[in-house]
């Protein structure tokens, strides 16, 4: 018989932090925290846990939440007894689970980004944190890189998808073309000409599973291990990871108010194999590449026999005048590989993007798609085709331009009222985020975690540098945040900055 300790555990319940804002249910959070405490011996074998009513009261949750957590622990064998008559930490846990790591090497965890037994290329990939783990996946102030999912016409989209499923063609029920659903490729080519100044035929459009998949395909097809690749500094970490995944040697090229400094790139690596740029709205600074720089970049690529990846991730959202035409439209030597995405303009969950490739590269990219993922979902592609050809896409873009311009103004005004002297925000005519510039004595990594403690989610600008950051700031998304949440988020951020 177990020799239970009849005294209540001395383990502080405050050490079981629960986050009501998390998408993970509270009972699961509580179960995980108790399990961790048992395995780390903070809760010793035989210890009696507090009663469910007591624990619910002290944690500020319902008794059902605690009951569900206890029942799960009982089922897994971490506790024993009968709920309502005393619950105890079991004495029968395998000793191996209770081993305390005494080595100097940190113990690997499920979230350890380094992995183990990785190749050199794998180690390079694992070294890049593309997205901070503390950032939630749902819209909140000021989660970057999310569109206004609350403003997406879901009923309309549901009707389009349902219509396709009610009477699907045979083509939609098969694997389909690895290059993508042909009518969608036609629709995208027809859209890109007048809207973005891109010159292409439908067969040059390759449908991908988002822009990250497109970047990965390009990197694996045109780079060999050790090839030099220019990348914007600061720049998009997703591009960095894709290039490292192909074994590239990254060459950070500084960005200024005219975009990527081509002369600096020539000086650093004149024979580079590839250059990655976001010329219409540089991420994260928001700079627009000047015409002179664009022509210099194209001239360099032609003479160096190099490729250019043009990442045109959110240029549709320009609030003054027409969108800046794509670099690809100026390319006469067929050196530009143009990347577009529907994750920013519609919904991230669609997982649809596209590549526009030179005509003589079509076969290579279609083959690469076959090897990598065969194709994106056929019915989703067909519904998107209808969304574009029936005029809903252009209508949605017009609505989002108006909405995002309004939300940017709300953010700027709230910052003027509450963040003056602590964070400098400047307007931008394009995009879905702004950079808030911090005073020189502020560390943006530290500020990011201070903001997180106040339930504000921002991204440190310094994390987008490969080398030492030239200036510190916070990347703040506003597109997915409604006006009330913008005001509340700015006030919480002001409290976080005041407390430093």
What attributes characterize this protein structure?
500 residues; alpha/beta; Arc Repressor Mutant, subunit A; Aspartate Aminotransferase, domain 2; Aspartate Aminotransferase, domain 1; 8-stranded mixed sheet
Structure description:
This protein is an alpha/beta fold and 500 residues long. The chain folds into three domains: 13-98, Winged helix-like DNA-binding domain superfamily/Winged helix DNA-binding domain (Arc Repressor Mutant, subunit A, Orthogonal Bundle), CATH 1.10.10; 169-390, Aspartate Aminotransferase, domain 2, CATH 3.40.640; 395-498, Aspartate Aminotransferase, domain 1. Helices cover 38% and strands 12% of the residues. The chain has 15 helices and 14 strands. The protein has helices at 26-39, 52-59, 63-76, 120-126, 154-166, 182-196, 211-222, 237-245, 262-268, 291-304, 362-372, 378-389, 392-418, 444-453, 483-498, and strands at 79-81, 87-89, 205-208, 228-233, 249-256, 259-260, 274-277, 307-311, 336-341, 353-356, 424-425, 433-437, 459-460, 473-477. Helix 6 crosses helix 12 (378-389). The longest helix has 27 residues, at 392-418. The radius of gyration is 26 Å and the shape is globular. Mean pLDDT is 86; it is low at 1-8 and 94-111.
SSE diagram, text form:
Blueprint: H1 26-39, H2 52-59, H3 63-76, E1 79-81, E2 87-89, H4 120-126, H5 154-166, H6 182-196, E3 205-208, H7 211-222, E4 228-233, H8 237-245, E5 249-256, E6 259-260, H9 262-268, E7 274-277, H10 291-304, E8 307-311, E9 336-341, E10 353-356, H11 362-372, H12 378-389, H13 392-418, E11 424-425, E12 433-437, H14 444-453, E13 459-460, E14 473-477, H15 483-498
């Amino acid at each position: 018989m177990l020799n239970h300790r009849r005294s209540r555990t001395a383990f502080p319940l405050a050490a079981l932090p629960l986050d009501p804002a998390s998408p993970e249910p509270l009972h699961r959070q509580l179960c995980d925290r108790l399990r961790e405490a048992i395995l780390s011996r903070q809760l010793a074998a035989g210890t009696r846990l507090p009663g469910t009513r007591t624990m619910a009261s002290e944690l500020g949750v319902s008794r059902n939440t605690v009951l569900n957590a206890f029942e799960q622990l009982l089922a897994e064998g971490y506790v024993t007894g009968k709920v309502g008559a005393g619950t105890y930490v079991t004495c029968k846990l395998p000793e191996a689970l209770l081993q305390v790591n005494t080595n100097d090497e940190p113990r690997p965890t499920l979230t350890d980004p380094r992995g183990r037994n990785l190749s050199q290329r794998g180690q390079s990939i694992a070294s890049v944190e593309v997205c901070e783990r503390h950032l939630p996946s749902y819209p909140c102030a000021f989660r970057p890189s999310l569109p206004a999912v609350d403003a997406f016409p879901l009923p309309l989209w549901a009707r389009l998808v349902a219509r396709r499923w009610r009477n699907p063609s045979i083509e939609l029920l098969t694997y389909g073309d690895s290059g993508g659903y042909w009518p969608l490729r036609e629709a995208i080519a027809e859209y890109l000409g007048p809207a973005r100044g891109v010159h292409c035929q439908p067969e040059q459009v390759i449908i991908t599973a988002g822009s990250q998949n497109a970047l990965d395909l390009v990197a694996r097809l045109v780079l060999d291990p050790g090839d030099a690749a220019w990348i914007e500094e600061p720049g998009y970490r997703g591009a960095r990871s894709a290039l490292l995944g192909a074994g590239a040697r990254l060459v950070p090229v500084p960005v200024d108010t005219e975009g990527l400094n081509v002369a600096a790139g020539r000086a650093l690596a004149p024979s580079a194999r590839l250059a990655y740029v976001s010329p219409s709205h540089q991420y994260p600074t928001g700079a627009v590449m000047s015409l002179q720089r664009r022509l210099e970049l194209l001239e360099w690529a032609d003479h160096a026999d190099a490729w250019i990846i043009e990442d045109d991730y959110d240029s549709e959202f320009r609030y003054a005048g027409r969108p800046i035409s794509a670099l690809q439209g100026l390319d006469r030597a067929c050196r530009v590989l143009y990347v577009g995405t529907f994750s920013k303009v519609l919904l991230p969950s669609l997982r649809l993007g596209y590549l526009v490739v030179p005509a003589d590269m079509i076969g290579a990219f279609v083959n690469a798609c076959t090897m990598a993922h065969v194709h994106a979902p056929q019915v989703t592609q067909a519904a998107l085709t209808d969304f574009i050809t029936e005029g809903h896409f252009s209508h949605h873009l017009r609505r989002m331009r108006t909405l995002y311009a309004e939300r940017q103004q709300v953010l700027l005004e709230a910052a003027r009222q509450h963040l003056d002297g602590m964070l400098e925000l400047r307007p931008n005519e394009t995009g879905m985020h702004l950079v808030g510039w911090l005073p020189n004595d502020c560390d943006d990594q530290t500020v990011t975690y201070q903001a997180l403690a106040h339930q504000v989610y921002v991204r440190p600008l310094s994390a987008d540098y490969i080398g030492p950051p030239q200036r510190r700031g916070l990347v703040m998304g506003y597109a997915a945040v409604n006006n009330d949440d913008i005001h509340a988020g700015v006030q919480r951020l002001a409290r976080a900055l005041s407390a430093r």
